[in-house]
Each structure stands twice: as C-alpha cells, then as structure tokens.
C-alpha cells in the first residue's frame, strides 16, 4: 500500500468523512475499505457505514474490484477548488489569447473515469464551429486530450486499461486495434503532444499539451481543435509552442490556487 501520511482524528463523523475523502483523493492507487480502516484507525463497521453514505452522496464509488475510487461529485469538487472563480478571469484570459493566436477554439479537459470532461472553453470567431460545451464528456481513446492523458499513465497501467477498454469506432480513422492505440500513445508519451486525426469527429482535427499540477504531474489537457476545411493537423501542430507556453501559465495558476486555498 502507498505510504500516505494523513492526520488521524478520533473526533466527529465529519472529521472521519473528510479524512476518507482526503485519503481517497491523494492515494496513488484505489484503496479497499480495509486499507482505509487501517490507515485512518476507523473500525470496520464504521468505515463501511461511512463509505456507503459517501457513495450514496456521489463522492466515491466502488470499482469492479471492490476498491474505493473518487466519483463524479468529488472530481467536480477537486476541480472547483483548483479552478475557482478567484483565478477564473486569469485562466480565461490565457485561453482567449491562445484562441486568438491560433484562430481556433481552445479549452481544458480533465480525466473522469474513461472519459474527458471539458471544464473551460473559448471559441473562435469563425461562423463554422464544432460545439462541445463545458461539462461535455468525450472518450479517452480517440480524442487528443484523452490520448494525452492515457500516455501520461505508467505503461503497465495504460496497457491494462487498453486491454479492457471497448474501442468503439467513432469515425473511419478511430484506432480500434489495441496495438495501434498503444503505438500511438507511446509516440505521444515521447512527444508530449496529443493528436486526434479525425478520430473522434469526421472533419475535425485536434492537438493538446499537458497542464501539470503543483507536483509536476499531469493534471489536465489544454487542447485546440479545428474543422479540416480550415486547418490540417499539421497546421494545428505548428502552434504547439504557443500551447505549451499557455499550459505553463495555467500550471502556475494551479500553484497559486493551491497556495490561496491553503492560506
């Protein structure tokens, strides 16, 4: 089990609930109820009761192995803390500048289960738009942001995911053979740039770069996409330096957001 130091308290149920949420959030792997009971010094009957309540409220869920993982409400809470309104105007100003430089829609997507969720978006001014709104969920295996996320995972973990993932063909270009997807992800891991060559939506190309958290690890994908009648994938890739600069600025905002919430 990952060695995680969590301040233990024998106080109220609220303290115990918060400690469970904290440990589930920072653990490098899914935890069993027994892991949580031991780490937090909570009796097994109590840990099961608290987990049932947290699951009913949408903060955690039990995966197919019986392990505890964050659920939608906890993910949204974490994103809300790190992308709070305190820095929203600065975040959107970076995206607006980037969208103006590239001339295409730009946004941020975070991993959520086997999908990517759009959390921020600034559209281009062209009449022809590919509309994927904030809060939309898109597949990980055929989008530039999702493939970038998969490429950031340890190779063994990534291969296990691909092995069990239903690679549905979204277009004629979707990589539905597991060895093809793995080869593509290996190249993305080397380059640090996710690509979507009409794999998600026919007539749309996209590329993305990582936004890193304060620990220097992948947190989200900064993406741009365009219809192929305006830009080719090669055209978009020419803007990777601008994407990377904006991603560095957004990473710094995460650092500032964490510092703000700790004070």
TrEMBL record:
GO terms for biological process: negative regulation of DNA-templated transcription. The keyword rRNA-binding does not apply. Residues 11-73 form the HTH iclR-type domain. PROSITE patterns: HTH_ICLR, ICLR_ED. SUPFAM superfamilies: GAF domain-like, Winged helix' DNA-binding domain. Keywords: DNA-binding, Transcription, Transcription regulation. InterPro entries: ArsR-like_HTH, GAF-like_dom_sf, HTH_MetabolicPath_Reg, Tscrpt_reg_IclR_C, Tscrpt_reg_IclR_N, WH-like_DNA-bd_sf, WH_DNA-bd_sf. One of its GO terms (molecular function) is DNA-binding transcription factor activity. Residues 73-256 form the IclR-ED domain. It holds the Pfam family IclR_C. This is HTH-type transcriptional repressor AllR. It comes from Thiopseudomonas alkaliphila.
């Amino acid at each position: 089990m990952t060695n995680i130091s969590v301040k233990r308290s024998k106080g109220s149920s609220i303290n115990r609930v918060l400690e469970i949420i904290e440990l589930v959030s920072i653990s490098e792997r899914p935890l069993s109820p027994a892991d949580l009971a031991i780490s937090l010094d909570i009796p097994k009957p109590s840990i099961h009761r608290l987990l049932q309540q947290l699951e009913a409220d949408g903060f955690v869920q039990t995966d197919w192995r019986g392990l505890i993982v964050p659920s939608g409400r906890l993910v949204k809470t974490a994103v809300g803390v790190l992308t709070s309104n305190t820095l929203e105007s600065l975040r959107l100003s970076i995206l607006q500048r980037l969208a103006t430089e590239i001339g295409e829609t730009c946004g941020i997507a975070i991993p959520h289960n086997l999908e990517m969720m759009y959390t921020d978006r600034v559209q281009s001014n062209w009449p022809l738009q590919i509309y994927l709104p904030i809060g939309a969920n898109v597949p990980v295996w055929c989008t530039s942001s999702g493939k970038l996320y998969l490429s950031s995972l340890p190779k063994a973990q990534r291969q296990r995911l691909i092995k069990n993932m239903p690679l549905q063909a979204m277009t004629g270009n979707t990589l539905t053979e597991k060895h093809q997807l793995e080869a593509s992800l290996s190249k993305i891991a080397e380059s640090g740039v996710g690509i979507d060559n009409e794999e998600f939506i026919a007539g749309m190309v996209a590329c993305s770069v990582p936004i890193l958290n304060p620990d220097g690890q992948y947190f989200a994908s900064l993406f741009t996409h365009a219809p192929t009648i305006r830009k080719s994938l090669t055209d978009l890739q020419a803007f990777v330096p601008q994407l990377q600069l904006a991603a560095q600025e957004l990473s710094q905002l995460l650092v500032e957001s964490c510092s703000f919430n700790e004070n």
